[in-house]
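Case study: UDP-glucose 4-epimerase.
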Amino acid sequence: MSKKKVLVTGGLGFIGSHTVVALQEDGYEVVIIDNLSNSSLDVLGGITQITGITPQFDNIDLRDKSLVKNFFEKYTDIDGIIHFAASKAVGESVNKPLLYYENNISSLVYLLQELYKKDYASFIFSSSCTVYGQADELPITEDAPVKKAESPYGNTKQIGEEIILDTCKTKPDFKAISLRYFNPIGAHPSAEIGELPIGVPQNLVPFITQTAIGKRKELSVFGDDYPTPDGTAIRDYIHVMDLAEAHVHALKRLLEGKEKENYEVFNLGTGKGNSVLEVIKSFEKVAGEKLAYKIVGRREGDITAAYADTTKANEELNWKASRSLDEALESAWKWQKVVQKKEKEDN
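Here is what the predicted structure looks like once written out:
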């Protein structure tokens, strides 16, 4: 039997690259589209080192409709698509809303237009728990109401889901799953690939590792007056390899025709929340050193707590996050040290 061919957009990014590894290890043939706006071609080498297979790579900007059309004329045998390609910095989206709407929405529409021409399609969308805002109840189930978005980035995820749902309604053999991630962290255990933010990190863990290695002076903890046990905000931190494996399970569900409806939504998290201070303590334990941090005021748009009810994903995708917070932070730290060593060699 020939291998199933999967297109991964944004496949050289943080979650995309780890998902490519998981797909290749499961026997899929992968084609990557990435425009390298927030990633590096070095990642392709890292994927090859881990799996022994170099995926097909096309440098395409998905905002160019003609290039998207040409791609699907060239690759007529794509069995499924996992769509990661999107801008994702909340703060930047507030300052540059049009950039985010163009990049995140138009690229999605152009992909769907090409898929719509096919007899059948399996599409997986990289969504986010930001669609829930500050949920009324914790843990958050997939039935929790979608709240008004706090940022243009969050809004692009909501609009993206709506566009896919509307598309599915008009064509029964168009099948899609939106995966709402909580907080992905960590790196592949080989330290060949990991999270590589360009500029100042927007996320907690790369900021922690960059502070520990001396790249940043200290970490700012935004607020210690939240109504939580230690006063700091709580999030559901999931190891990126657990997240990557969930995509393989979701893809199988569609390709094997096991979906209950042609549009489905799943939360991807651990089902457990950890506070910012708990993450810092866990990091200090695995790294064996103290972290320089200070408490500052709350950050605009931050919510108190968010963690997933993962029952639906556990039961229907036959998937469960298995790696611990310590493991995730240990892998992130190992990756940071590799990055630092490479940067020194390059200079």
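For the exam, be able to explain this: The first helix runs from residue 14 to 25.
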